[in-house]
């Protein structure tokens, strides 16, 4: 048996969370050694990437040594974890990406964080979020090219995993805040079904939409993280599920996808088809073209209410961009809420029928490669409908564009089919790696 | 024009929030005078009723004087307000009914609290909640008989309004935590449609169910409070809506209603019928009998996840009763979540069709009068299905039982018909007062 102390740092850094978990669970690797290697990588990358809002290496090392000297805590035993700074943490400041909360220090962990720690994860620090998970960015850069955005709102989590500083990180998605940064940073990001994971202790933006999820380097990584956060660490990905029936959706926003993104999606379809995966085009009902707009209205309307304290008591601490969004949200009343609800009920019903013929829908994860410049985090349009419908969605990195930045495809399954969806995504991942 | 200074305290105390608001808006009554009268009433009742966890008369008086010397702030200008201690407040400790949060002092207001303050309400203090809004009671007594429970979980808010210490109070409902204490304390309680009011800054128990609402002395009071919390203070109750078509539901739990409760409901039906209101029996589909059970499972399952930090890091601070509930919640996995969701979708669909023939459903608000003893807060069974379906529900006090304690009926409308539902409830209230 190879002792992990023999593995050089470069090899360890190259392993995914699932491989590392195996080494840690079998005590072939110590939490201290893994953390040491991660911290070296942080020292190397962080000055350029700026993924962290707060990091505490000494505190993390203390926990690593405690884990090494004690019994196995759970499936995340010894894995360093980044936590988006939208989750409350009892031993780190929690700023929600806003100067209003610069001095905020909660005494409690968000439920998802408590579950990860209880499963043995070591919270290395808090990762940068945009302002209250909206569109005003933090300082984070794309690890593939620091002149480009990492995407948002889970900017730091995606960038830290993309830069291989940590194997796993927590994020949230209201519009496209997991899928888009995952695509831009070239990592796997998973947004579970709405309602699967508790949001207790996560700053509220839009109650009908906010969803907790995570980032890793492969499908098995995010499955591991999701199972722990869902309070079901005994979950196992189905094996031998067979090849999923894939519906290719160009969506109503296809012309917003860059030529490289369009080409990559179609190449992916050809590769899957060549590998024997049943792939066919799926036409979404016309009404689906309007769902991105409904999503936008629901998000603005709910944010206007959720951020009432900040808007009324600390308006000077809000960005112009956020104030505009809240202003727009103020205009939607009960009548629109009812109309949104009716549109959603109808779309859910149609979606249910659509999934009778498919296991996964395949769409672009974003409009293309990460945009140049750090002032904007990119357009969430390709994820809005799935966020509105509460469906489990995953970004799978599938290549690079002409600027040398990652491109990803989005795989979406039926509501609460998270285990099956992840299983099918893993099949696709394996086929595309061949 | 009568100056309010001429109104004796007993008269002022007897007025409802809407009447008081009119006097305050027209400057016939000062906030200082109203608060003084409320504080006298608190001094008189609080030693027995124990509705408050924290109260700050001096701070409230300071705000009252500021309001009197400034412009009108909004529709709640000068009205003293009780806030359930499940809502974060920036100038009061916030304990969630748990010793774990005995020293918790948030720096921010829950969204609903911020909106009420912005509309001119004076938060007099925090009212007693059961432990995390579950079933382990605080010290509060029923204002009609201190040997009886006030109901829960919004125990202090219902009792403080019932004792006429304050005209308005905020509450939350996950199972029956507004309707039941309102019925027990003889006040109007309103649980709006799920999703109407932001829960930002409210301790999470069960994300699919937790709903913010309020207490007052009449339908117009809770409509006033709801419109402010919904961010729509321009709401007006419809007038001349006509008589609602009422469906009388005995529900699958009819035999759990006391003879007095059954008699009171049927007497109410006769009185409405005699007043020309179209009343008819409605048979709920058989499957509805199971919704209370589904509700219970969803609540336990989500609470198990939401209280992860407390369960894992502070188990010694949780009551036996709550630990049992969480233990039960641990047993439900993805498969049950899907089954619950399917049951709910089917029930919602059937409910929609049912409401084609009715404007309001009429059911008991609780099993009967408030139970004797303070160890239990009563059975939520008559509200579970409406909470699960997210429907707007209101308790209307309609008389007293053999023990001299209040009895109430529950009026429930279609989802997001909150304005119309409140309008119809007001018609019923007026007819029953004739």
Description:
2 copies of one chain form a homodimer. Chain A is of the alpha/beta class. Chain A has one domain: Amidase signature (AS) enzymes (Alpha-Beta Complex). Chain A is 40% helix and 13% strand. Chain A contains 15 helices and 11 strands. The first copy, chain A, has helices at residues 9-14, 17-25, 31-49, 57-69, 111-118, 155-162, 179-185, 219-229, 259-274, 291-306, 308-313, 320-329, 334-354, 381-389, 418-433; strands at residues 52-55, 80-84, 122-127, 168-173, 188-191, 211-216, 246-248, 279-281, 360-364, 393-400, 406-412. An 11-stranded mixed sheet of chain A has the order 1-3-2-4-6-5-10-11-9-7-8, sandwiched between helices. The longest helix of chain A has 21 residues, at 334-354. The first copy, chain A, is globular, with a radius of gyration of 20 Å. The model of chain A has no long low-confidence stretch (mean pLDDT 95).
Outline the fold blueprint.
Two copies of one chain form a homodimer.
Chain A lengths: L8 H6 L2 H9 L5 H19 L2 E4 L1 H13 L10 E5 L26 H8 L3 E6 L27 H8 L5 E6 L5 H7 L2 E4 L19 E6 L2 H11 L16 E3 L10 H16 L4 E3 L9 H16 L1 H6 L6 H10 L4 H21 L5 E5 L16 H9 L3 E8 L5 E7 L5 H16 L1
Parallel strand pairs in A: 2-3, 2-4, 7-8, 7-9
Antiparallel strand pairs in A: 1-3, 4-6, 5-6, 5-10, 9-11, 10-11
Instruction: Tell me the Rg of chain A in angstroms.
Output: 20 Å
Arithmetic mean pLDDT of chain A:
95
Identify the biggest protein-protein contact and residues per side. Answer: A-B, 47 and 47 residues
Strand order of the largest sheet of chain A: 1-3-2-4-6-5-10-11-9-7-8
Following the backbone from N to C, one meets helices and strands of chain A in this order, namely HHHEHEHEHEHEEHEHEHHHHEHEEH
The name CATH uses for the topology of chain A is Amidase signature (AS) enzymes
Kindly, what is the distance between the CA atoms of the first and last residues of chain A, rounded to a whole number of angstroms? 28 Å
Share in helix of chain A: 40-55%
Structural classification of chain A: alpha/beta
Q: Indicate the CATH architecture of chain A.
A: Alpha-Beta Complex
Strand % of chain A is 5-15%
Q: What is the CATH homologous superfamily assignment of chain A?
A: Amidase signature (AS) domain
Q: How many alpha or pi helices of chain A?
A: 15
CATH C-level label of chain A: Alpha Beta
Supply the number of structural domains of chain A: 1
